[in-house]
Design a protein that fits this description.
Elements: E1 2-6, E2 9-12, E3 17-24, E4 34-39, E5 48-53, E6 59-61, E7 69-74, E8 79-84, E9 93-99, E10 105-106, E11 110-115
Parallel strand pairs: 2-11
Antiparallel strand pairs: 1-3, 3-8, 4-5, 4-9, 5-6, 7-8, 9-10, 9-11
Length: 116
Amino acid sequence: VQLQASGGGSVQAGNSLRLSCVASGVIAFSGLEMGWYRRAPEEYDYRDLVASIDSGGGTNYDENVQGRFTISRDNAKNTVHLQMNSLKPEDTAVYYCRKLTGPPVWGQGTQVTVSS
């Protein structure tokens, strides 16, 4: 299984970005729980779970993004999205998608930079 993340960029506070993560080499993507993590600039190798979505579409969010971020999935396209609205400078981080079901698989990071 490989995960390819995209959609990062540099925006001003208050704006939006949409991250996407496409899974390849997977037979039953719909049965997987998927998550988005982020690593803040000051963190060497610690990644916070931002949001997750299970096979039934149930979602969980970090309290710091609740109400601003929305995780969703398109099983037909083996893709999970993270819609990020009302971005804040403290959302600046490298964002990673991760397969949570079974052996963990990480995608490569995508940089999100939010300026004030």
